[in-house]
Predict the 3D structure of the following.
Amino acid sequence: MDDMDKARIKILVVDDELGLCAGIQEALQREGYAVDAANDAATALEWASERLYNLILTDVKMPGMNGLELFREARQKCRDTMFILMTAHGTVENAVTAMKEGAYDYLSKPLDMQRLRALVLKALELQAVVSENNELRLRLKKHSAPSLLVGDSEAIRRVIQLADEVAGSDVTILIEGESGTGKEIVARSIHLKSPRAEKPFISVNCAALPEQLLEAELFGHVRGAFTGATADKPGRFQLADGGTLFLDEIGDLSAKGQGDLLRVLEDGTFRMVGGTRMIRVNVRVVAATNKKLHEAVVAGDFREDLLYRLQIVPIPLPPLRERAGDIPLLIESFLEHFAGKHKRRRKKMSAEALQICQRYPWPGNVRQLRNMVERLVIIGKSPVIDVEELPDFLRAHERNADAFSIRPGMSLAEVEKILIRQTLTHVTNNREEAAKMLGVSRRTLQYKLKEYGLLPAPPSKGQGQETGE
């Protein structure tokens, strides 16, 4: 999202409290978004019919048409728009209903502005990947893979195959991968291909919730459970009943949160905070992490019994640098998608520009690539994107990759190590091809990689994953 042009993101804030409405508008404008503000639902519905908003943030309780009615009416006119509802005392039930009908999330009043900004960013990031335009919706209904999973590499084919195989079951899944590899997209893909597809998909970012709020967020609370609990509020497990609960950044759960989660995974029951009645739900849990949880177990930061409960089926997502051969297909898919989304002419990328993209290591993974392509679609003047239009970071990396510095006094081993690393990073990550270029056998190259510490770390004991090459 850092690479996205926020000035082109259009948000509509709807609230009959004039001061609060203006305050939210100002806070989001400071983030760089283009923000309109309406003080009644009828005006908001009129504007939503005339212009396309990425996100509508609406209060639930308003005179005349309320927020739930606005959501339902606007949803018919603009299927791509994300909705976040703001709830006060007595309106949580309406917000829960909206979430079950497709709203992204809700926020309780009084608003926590930091959480509001984080939730807005999360909703927009998700929209950028699975924007529900007609073409993508049709593909999803045909159970085709979401755009982040485009590719012919063995690694991504393995992910797609595994997701297809587990979709029909209720088995707990742990998706492992670096930030930006598309973990939530894989989780949604599994949900859409499952018998639960018509039921809610509820997402929780464990890293974004303080420990004192996590239990109430997951399991809900009863009225009077703590100061400010003026009404019963269902938790995410109840919202996801019959559907899928996605627990993102599971590695950031506190020790207490880990214990609470383990208990509900074992028997499917829990108590609301402050409640006495046991509640049973039918929820399929998909978790995700960008941390090495086996190492966290060894360090005493993560419960081993919870890890085994979560990773009944582990799905490792490869970083983009390990599937560079998929980059041309990904770029083609993103060019087509964003040209339609932003009503721009179709563009292509030159062969030389594609090669530069393939040689870059993409630390932000597919999300970084997607955001770059979107920016090029929006600002590009020519139908062909050439090297000159690529961002500075790509061209600078290419200049540095063309040569490396050898200082007098360096050992031959140091020079050899740099040459091997540069060849695998900037020319080809296929070890057989690299060995031919370097004039050695594949076995010799493998020995050198081990000798110089250039091999990826093997999976932790018990992980049961192939290292791959």
In short: The radius of gyration is 24 Å. Residues 131-146, 457-469 have pLDDT under 50 and may be disordered. The CA atoms of residues 19 and 289 lie 39 Å apart.
